[in-house]
Amino acid sequence: MMQLGTGATIGLGLMLLVVIGGGVAALFVGLRTRAAAAMARDENARLHATLRSAPALAMLVRPDGRVEMPTRLADWLGLSVAPRTLADLTDGDDAGLQPEDVAVLTADVTAAQRAGREFERAIRPRGSDRALTLRGGRAPAELGAAGGAIVWVFDASDTQGEIERLGGEVERLADAYRALTGLIEAAPMPMWYRGGDLKLAMVNSAYVEAVEGRDASETLSRGLELVEGTGQGGPLAGAAAAKAQGRPAEQVLPATINGARRRLRVIDVPLPTGGVAGFAVDIEELEQARSGAKRFAEAQRGMLDRLSAGVAQFGPDRALVFCNQPFHRMFAMRAEWLADRPEFDRVLERMREANRLPEVRDFPGWKAERRNWFVAADVASEENWHLPGGTHLHVVAQPLPDGGLLLIFEDRTEQVQLASARDTLLRVRTATFDNLFEALGVFAADGRLQLWNNRFRALWGVDEEFLASHPRVDVFASRIAPRLSTPSRSTLIADLVHSATAERQQRGGRVAFADGRHFEFAGVPLPDGNALFTMLDITDSRRAEQALRERADALEAADKVKTQFVANMSYELKTPLTSIGGFAEMLHGGYAGELPAEAGTYVEAILDSVERLGLLIDDVLDLTRGGEGAAVERKDVDLVTVAREAAMAIQPAIKRHKIDFAVELSRSAGRVQGDPQRLREVVEHLLRHALASLGEGGRILLHADGTATHARIVVSDDGPGLDEESAGRVFDRFAEPHLQPGGERALGLGMPLAKQFVEAHGGTISLVSEPGEGTLVTVELPRR
Fold first, then answer.
1. Backbone dihedral region of 642: left (phi > 0), alpha (psi from -120 to 50 degrees) or beta?
2. Protein fold of 628-782
3. Using CA atoms, how far apart are residues 209 and 223, in angstroms rounded to an integer?
4. Top CATH class, 551-625
5. Where do transmembrane segments lie in this chain (predicted)?
6. Beta carbons of 688 and 608 less than 8 angstroms apart
7. What is the longest distance spanned by two Cα atoms in the chain?
8. DSSP character for 58?
9. Contact present, 150 and 139 (Cβ < 8 Å)
């Protein structure tokens, strides 16, 4: 074994010490480096984790145009592999970015590299719903890409969607605001907005017009209020109350708009912004309408009180709110009880207690059915109530819009009775109509046959089926024409019906049937515009008429023979009578010598008889002439002269009978138009009638006077007078002869002739007489 020296050993130890120290030092440095590397590795992992969770990814564009990006970013861009250059950001036609987006991005990156200009750009890859935001600038030198650019890419899909949503919401709210503003501006009522200090901040056009402002700005600057006053109840009182209470405030205030006083309903509404919005509604017309409606309701109720029908009105709560006086009387209800607003059910019960409801078995069920009147669908219900005692009520139940009910009770008892009487009358009329001997048919205004009786159908020989078809009058006329003796006369039926319906004139005539019968027909207009066609069988009466006509002709011929005979006999009698009168006058005048007194009396009797017989013959001649004798000549006649001549003509008879004869002829009698001979005969007949009723010593008065329109002749006597029966027959030419005072029978033709002559002059004659009081005869003659 080789042994080292001490120096060598020391040197070796030092060398070993140096080596150990170096190793220790190297170990220490290694450990530090290892620790630093571990720290760097952890930091790098943390940074990578941070980058992976970051909302943005980086794309590095080097100065030579090369592009570095993570695979995740390439996926965002819709690329299957990471691009090498910016030009590779577009991949065909359906991947990557749009070519125009790549061009713009390239320009932005170039500007950032050269001028350090930052940019921000929003893009959307093709075929992707992802929205990306690019923010770029010059790359830091620490990245080892001096002169390059770094682009941060943010995924803004959610943010962009929210932005778009918010943008749409903003646009919608803007449109709503514009619409609301336009609506407020176009509103016909004044509207305004007050700020937190309650000063006007906005008004619409209606407000400006109401306060007579120039425009909204001028109105706001002047602070023109719509309503006058500043105290309690002023324009700010409602706004302050609404703001303080946090709920709308409403008040009715007066205002002057366009020079007219109006009543406004002002409503203030607090807003969350602290301000107050308000608007005003013109209720002047509404108030007037309410006042008018109130007056109308009062007038209507006053009118309902005057109706004969009972009226009751119930409110929505089914309580009685009104009833008129006829309702009180009809249902015997006290006004005090009705004033308590009884309910509908109680009113029905009170009606039942008063025996004013129909008798029903199930009254609760009946009452429940009547309660349904309140809920009827605005349809009036009508019923007829037959009450005990024969009363008939027509009930109308009308639901009201407010949920109430109006009841109308009309007493139709009299109408029902009249209808029953009318039905009976119609049945009687129908039975009478069908059983009349006269044929009747009723034609309507259009000419169609409406009604007929059995006699009508049997007379024309038509069947019931034809009449039931209501034929027109022309069709009916052509159908029955063969039954007439002259078929063409059937058209008269149509003319007659037309005259009665269209011209409203009644016409008639006669028609002969082919079987020899004769009928009288007539068309009578009826009040309803129809025409009544009647036909009466006059065959028997026509035959009787023909027989009577033949008999009348025979009687007329006989009368002419009689008249001629009487006239001839009168003329024949007057010839010897004239001779008798002439010889009697000669004897009375003493031509045959002086006669004894007794013979003179006999001669006077002969003269009276001759005079009376002559007058009687003249009267008979006048009567036989009939109408010829009634004819008068018209000329101007002095009535006083005529009356004086008549008085002189009767003077001899007056003297013989020793009658007191007074004549009073007033100048007012004047002149009349007539026949002087006939008028003189009238006065003579009146005087002789008075003379015939008197004995010796009687008295006769002849009086004449007149007016501007009439002349009057009065003859009176103080004779025995006439009873009522005799006075009634004094002017009858066929009356029985009467006895004169001397016991002789007289025909009394003078008074009938006097009446005949007076009436021929258009005058009147009257006689007044009482037994024992005498007789007064008055004749009145017209001037013209």
1. alpha
2. Heat Shock Protein 90 (3.30.565)
3. 14
4. mainly alpha
5. 12-31
6. no
7. 270
8. E
9. yes
User: End-to-end distance of the chain based on CA atoms, in angstroms?
Assistant: 218
DSSP 737: P
For residue 271, what pLDDT is reported? 87
Which one-letter amino acid corresponds to residue 117? Answer: R
Share of the chain above pLDDT 70, in %: 84
**CA pair distance 278, 203, nearest whole angstrom:** 10
Mean pLDDT of the chain: 80
Q: Tokens in use for 483? A: 């039954």
**pLDDT tens-place string over residues 658-675:** 888 999 999 998 899 998
Q: How many CB atoms lie within 10 A of CB 584?
A: 19
Identity at 466, one-letter amino acid code: F
Whether pLDDT at 543 is above 50: yes
The vertex-718 CA angle with 712 and 724, nearest 5°, equals 80
pLDDT digits (tens, 9 = 90+) for 393-402: 899 988 888 8
Edge-first strand listing for the sheet containing 507-512: 449-452, 439-443, 531-537, 518-525, 507-512
Query: Which conformational region is residue 81 in: left (phi greater than 0), alpha (psi within -120 to 50 degrees), or beta?
Result: beta
In one-letter notation, the amino acid at residue 472 is: R
539 exposure class (CB count in 10 Å sphere: 0-12, 13-18, 19+): middle
Q: Beta 119-123 vs 95-96: how paired, if at all? A: unpaired
Indicate whether 712 pLDDT > 90. Answer: yes
Q: Which amino acid is at 16?
A: L
Torsion of CA 712, 715, 720, 726, to 10 degrees: -50
Task: Retrieve residue 608's tokens.
Answer: 């009276």
How many whole angstroms separate alpha carbon 195 and alpha carbon 200? 7
